[in-house]
Design goal:
This is TadE-like protein. By secondary structure, this protein is of the alpha+beta class. The chain is 35% helix and 19% strand. The longest helix has 44 residues.
């Protein structure tokens, strides 16, 4: 069976067992592992959160591009510039530096070609909005050189405006 530790009397109080230091030693062994797991979970959570924000920003930017933009553009600016500015503003309001964000609007059929959403020849054509940011720009911890990677999101929409007929 189990053998009990003999109780001994301390000078300041009642009898205690000889195991009073074991909990501190166990905590000292387990605490670094728990802290490492906690920081790892925070890093993974930040990557997932950023990926989700990039997807939302790309979708909302493309949605803007697919609707009637009359009266929405400042004088002298283009639809592509407003789309990029809206995406960067949304992401900046969520804690991602606007300087670290890359926004591209590409032709869906020819992915290397830029797409002008204001060009009437591009009406009803598919385009792709790509948004990316390096993980080092959003990470809570430093990222070693050579280990950085881009978080990206893209969405494909049709460049069209709602035309109402009588």
């Amino acid at each position: 069976m189990f053998r009990r530790m003999p109780l001994r009397r301390t000078p300041l109080g009642p009898k205690v067992s000889g195991k009073h230091g074991i909990a501190a030693v166990e905590f000292a062994v387990v605490a670094p592992v728990l802290v490492a797991i906690m920081f790892g979970m925070m890093s993974v959570n930040r990557a997932f959160e950023t990926q989700n924000l990039l997807s939302i920003a790309a979708r909302e930017g493309a949605r803007f591009a697919s609707m009637d933009r009359n009266g929405m553009l400042a004088e002298g600016s283009t639809g592509n510039q407003k789309l990029e500015q809206d995406i960067k503003s949304f992401l900046a309001s969520n804690g991602i530096s606007a300087d670290s964000i890359t926004v591209e609007v590409k032709d869906f059929e020819n992915p290397e070609t830029d797409f002008n959403i204001d060009d009437p020849n591009n009406d009803l054509r598919l385009f792709e909005v790509r948004v990316s940011v390096n993980y080092s720009a959003v990470s809570y911890t430093s990222v070693p050189n050579g280990s950085d990677y881009a978080l990206t999101a893209s969405v494909v929409f049709r460049n069209g405006r709602a035309n109402l007929s009588d």
